[in-house]
Amino acid sequence: MCTSFLCSPSPPPQVFDNYAVTVMIGGEPYTLGLFDTAGQEDYDRLRPLSYPQTDVFLVCFSVVSPSSFENVREKWVPEISHHCPRTPFLLVGTQVDLRDDSNTLEKLAKNKQRALSCESGEKLARELKAVKYVECSALTQRGLKNVFDEAILAALEPPDNKPKKRCVLL
């Protein structure tokens, strides 16, 4: 997804872990440092080393992979919440171009599964207290710019998760 956003229309064949790009938001330039972390179990101990000073997380799942949707709740949000409890995150449904693909839907049906709806993503985002739910397709680039625009906005205006101070008058 990061490669597609930065190198549209087609990403280079190489695999990178981090990227930097300057984007304009409201007429102001912002330099984004993007880190695409490995999701494999082999990297579970190393991955959190890239988390400090993160301004916003993009927690992604494929709308045509129910197991990736479950991993959001079971693995990814607990992990980032443990290491960066005050850092906002967006929930991102990816591969929306496959939601209506007959071959993909057939494969899902054979396993008694179906593509995840936008409403399912929105509901999970509310339950997990994500800043927002957004969807995109890296292949068609549909919604891709919006994902990063929303991430920038979330980083610039993080939610106030600090406990409120109270003044007690006696």
From TrEMBL:
Q: Name one Pfam family in it.
A: Ras
**SMART domains, alphabetized:** RAB, RAS, RHO
Which GO terms of type biological process are on file? small GTPase-mediated signal transduction
Q: Does the keyword GTP-binding apply?
A: yes
Any one GO MF annotation of this record: GTP binding
Give a yes or no for keyword Nucleotide-binding in this entry: yes
Q: Which UniProt keywords apply?
A: GTP-binding, Nucleotide-binding
**NCBIfam families linked:** small_GTP
Protein's name in the database: Cell division control protein 42 homolog
